[in-house]
């Protein structure tokens, strides 16, 4: 999520009325915003929803206007600015290629696979388990999800 920048203007004072001395300071809104307190158990419980065949509950924790980027050069790579467009282009698409019960993801090495950052940011190392393509081939994948959460604990931005 790219938060807007705000400008704080220090106007001329009676002691220094010259307009040539106006100071403009840019304030990144992330410095002043209140964020949901992120913890490893919170991230773990949220991402544990990805181990279930149905991911609908996970996506209730994702903002409708999420910014989601899948890096790389695969057919799943791209950038989406809504939850629905991301799901349609990736989760729903890959679901047709995998054997039921679909894709299962879990955090690599438990809480050691979760790094908490500042300003509502966290990174989690995830990998697939017990996941197979329709022809029976193991679908072994590893991902690093870089996430930004809003002040309500909703996922606002993801880069994989």
Please explain how this structure is put together.
The protein has 160 residues and is α+β, with helices and mostly antiparallel strands. It is built from 5 helices and 9 strands, in the order ββαααββααβββββ. The strands form 2 sheets. Strands 3, 4, 5, 6, 7, 8 and 9 form a 7-stranded mixed sheet that branches. Mean pLDDT is 80; it is low at 1-13 and 17-33.
Please outline what is shown here.
The protein has 160 residues and is α+β, with helices and mostly antiparallel strands.
Shape: globular
Class per helix and strand makeup: alpha+beta
Strand tally: 9
- Radius of gyration (CA) equals 21 Å
Summarize the main sheet: 7 strands, mixed
Helix-strand string:
EEHHHEEHHEEEEE
| Termini gap | 14 Å
Number of separate helices: 5
What would the average pLDDT be, to the nearest integer? Answer: 80
Name the features.
disordered N terminus, globular, 5 helices, 7-stranded mixed β-sheet, 160 residues, single chain, 9 strands, alpha+beta, 18% helix
How are the elements arranged and paired?
Layout: E1 5-10, E2 23-28, H1 29-32, H2 40-47, H3 56-59, E3 62-70, E4 78-80, H4 83-89, H5 91-95, E5 105-107, E6 114-116, E7 121-128, E8 142-149, E9 155-159
Parallel strand pairs: 3-9
Antiparallel strand pairs: 1-2, 3-4, 5-7, 6-7, 7-8, 8-9
């Amino acid at each position: 999520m790219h938060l807007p920048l705000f400008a704080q203007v220090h106007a001329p004072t009676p002691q220094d009325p010259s307009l040539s001395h106006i100071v403009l300071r840019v304030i990144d809104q992330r410095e002043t915003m209140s964020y949901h307190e992120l913890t490893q158990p919170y991230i773990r419980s949220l991402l544990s929803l990805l181990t279930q065949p149905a991911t609908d509950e996970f996506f209730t924790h994702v903002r409708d206007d999420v910014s989601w980027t899948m890096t790389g050069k695969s057919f799943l790579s791209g950038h989406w600015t809504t939850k629905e467009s991301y799901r349609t282009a990736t989760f729903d698409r890959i679901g047709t290629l995998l054997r039921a019960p679909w894709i299962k993801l879990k955090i690599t090495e438990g809480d050691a696979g979760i790094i908490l950052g500042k300003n509502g940011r966290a990174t989690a190392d995830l990998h697939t388990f017990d996941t197979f393509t329709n022809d029976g081939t193991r679908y072994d994948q590893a991902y690093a999800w870089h996430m930004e959460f809003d002040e309500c604990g909703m996922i606002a931005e993801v880069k994989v």
